[in-house]
Amino acid sequence: MNPLLQKLQSYPFEKLRVLFKDITPRAGVKPISFGIGEPKHPTPALIRDAVIDSLGGMASYPATLGSEPLRESIAAWVKQRYHLPSVDPLTEVLPVSGSREALFALAQTVIDNRTTDPAQPPIVLCPNPFYQIYEGAALLAGAEHYFVNSDPARNFACDYSTVPEDIWARTQLVYVCSPGNPTGAVMTLDDWRELFALSDKHNFVIASDECYSEIYFDETKPPLGGLEAARLLGRGFERLIMLSSLSKRSNVPGMRSGFVAGDASILKAFLLYRTYHGAALSTVFQRASVIAWQDETHVRDNRAKYLQKFKTVTPMLAEVLDVRLPDAAFYLWANVSRTGLTDTEFAARLYADYNVTVLPGSFLARTAHGTNPGEGFVRIALVAEVEECVEGARRIVEFCRTLGA
């Protein structure tokens, strides 16, 4: 067996299962889950119809490079969404089987783990809290992870000035997530300026995870993306890869349809890796994805639903928890300290007494530099329909009030 597998930790939802294993929720109370970030809004009819109309494609092997119409539709979307002068559909975009697969595989492509000193492996920098794929990708590429804690005083941005010079010298890849999971924070242009300067100095690749980019609350202010920031700062796409997906944007997580875009030299190597990896997107879903990327009406309708939920639920929960509307994404990152419970105690008792599931923040972070920045928080995924989210929020409020919060 690959010994690096022994370095992997249990996934957050496995930790949640263990936390709940001896708990029987109160009888007669319908379960409501805010635990998993899986979109629950209906898949738009135009995408369902496109899948059905494309079923004849199941008789063909899909190309890893993706079809020309798909690459062109993605390039056109990226160009329009991020106000770019041009995007080459042949060299600067690549369809992938969901951003999760690509986030993992990218590390296997760009990390050079050859070293004369086994005690000094390459470094992959990750935000903390973080999406656990970043950690697993680093470890299985033979690298070591270094966590940069999110700072509530900086709107949960990472303070890269705290990273020692010897860590930067070994860094080969930096994962960023904007809008962030779990905080919903969006990187500013100044954040990008700092990170680009560090990349120029230390020659590392930036992987910008932007899978939540189309869930936001002001139609006039879509979140800034990495490629857009590069343009605004007068740069090209050197050492920069952004990753996106239809899963959240179009409510089709089962299609596993996403893309990567950016530095053409990295994408050339990534295509070679993925050709052997065998993770080409189904021809059926490639054809349906063309339809999805070309339509914005269903995306605006989707955002309107999230806006309604967040505007209703956030003030309800703010009466009993320290929580506010995030910059973007579909999570509330709620501080539960005023209840007198830890994040795991809060989640366990809420599940037992009210059959509502939330995810403890400590499960989404690691102890680094003397602290676990997820402790005292819970992640609340407002993915269900409005009525269910409101009912779940009502139960949380009632639960907190029984604690005197």
Folded structure, characterized:
GO terms for molecular function: pyridoxal phosphate binding; succinyldiaminopimelate transaminase activity. Its EC number is 2.6.1.17. By secondary structure, the protein is of the alpha/beta class. The chain has 2 domains: 10-42 and 298-402, Aspartate Aminotransferase, domain 1; 45-294, Type I PLP-dependent aspartate aminotransferase-like (Major domain) (Aspartate Aminotransferase, domain 2, 3-Layer(aba) Sandwich). Helix content is 40%, strand content 15%. The radius of gyration is 21 Å and the shape is globular. The N and C termini lie far apart (49 Å). 49% of the residues are buried. The model has no long low-confidence stretch (mean pLDDT 96).
Number of domains: 2
pLDDT average, as an integer?
A: 96
The Rg value, from CA coordinates, equals: 21 Å
Q: Could you say which overall geometry the principal axes of the C-alpha atoms support?
A: globular
Which percent band covers the strand fraction? 5-15%
Estimated structural class: alpha/beta
Which CATH class of the largest domain?
A: Alpha Beta
Separate helix tally: 14
If classified by CATH, what would the architecture of the largest domain be?
Answer: 3-Layer(aba) Sandwich
Query: If you consult CATH, what is the topology of the largest domain?
Result: Aspartate Aminotransferase, domain 2
Proportion of residues in helical segments: 25-40%
